Amino acid sequence: MEYRVNLKIYEGPMDLLIDLIKKNEIDIYDIPIHIITEQFLEYIKEANKINLELTSEFILMASTLIEIKSKMLLPKIKISEEEEDDEEDPRDSLVQKILEYEKYKDISEILKESHNYEAKAFYKLQEDFTNIDDIDLLKNCDVNSLAKSFKNIINKLKSENIIAEIKQESFSIEEATSVLKNKIGKTGKILFTDLLSESPIIEEIISFFLSVLELVKVGYIKAYQEDDYQDIKLLIREENSFE
After folding, report:
1. If we measure between CA atoms, which residue out of 28, 30, 39, 42 comes closest to residue 98?
2. What average pLDDT does this structure show over 147-154?
3. Which of 2, 53, 97, 231 would you label with 166, given CA atoms 20 to 30 Å apart?
4. Is 0.85 surpassed by the pTM of this model?
């Protein structure tokens, strides 16, 4: 049967060899080495005609196939039944290399798919509050001090059994911002704890705290403390008082 190799570009000789095995529907454990060798050499010959550059690995594989073919053509000297059965098949080494290559090829494809999946994922970047300066946070109050005060507020509410244990519906930062703007818009100033409901859940307290940081960041309010770890006082900026 005449066979003409489709001259597509292969990454290496193993890819060509596996492609030939699949196209001929060959059992990998019983490769007709003379057919595969002829087709492999035909590919190299056609590649040279069109000046397709092949790596030295293709020539090395061709030499290996020719060597295996030669060994297969040598007559077997039968001394005994047991010795004939134990004789090593010249193709065994090649079969093992093909199986190992396919295994690593499959692993490579899995890793590639995993990489492509990760590349499509989007992650929210950490909020940057470095532009909150001493004008926004009065009396040398910085973000770290606010965080410590926030932790102190939670501990105090827990000790007084004010924080609700029963889970409620989630309380978003958007909801917290709306409540904060509404309350501070009426008086111009407010304590952080005055924002909270009678039995706030942790999610509500966190949402209000993040809302405070965001509104300070965009210049809508100012935050300060009279003493370390005390309640956080919020003050609306004058330019936002008449919104």
Report:
1. 28
2. 73
3. 231
4. no
Of 25-29, 49-53, 97-101, 189-193, the range with the lowest mean pLDDT is 49-53
Q: Give me the residue spans of the domains in the chain.
A: 13-119, 143-240
Q: Is the dihedral of CA 196, 197, 199, 204 positive or negative?
A: negative
Q: What's the whole-number mean pLDDT along residues 108-125?
A: 66
Contact between residue 171 and residue 211 where contact means Cβ atoms under 8 Å apart: no
Contact 40, 65 (CB under 8 A): yes
Q: Which two tokens stand for residue 198?
A: 């009678």
pLDDT of residue 80: 57
Tell me phi and psi for residue 216, to 5 degrees: -65, -40
Q: Which CATH class is domain 143-240?
A: mainly alpha
Residue type, 156: K
User: In the predicted model, is pLDDT for residue 135 greater than 50?
Assistant: no
């409901």: which residue's tokens? 197
Q: In the beta sheet, which residues pair with residue 223? A: 137, 234
| Cα gap 132→113, rounded to integer Å | 42
Task: Identify the helix (H) or strand (E) that includes residue 189.
Answer: strand 189-191
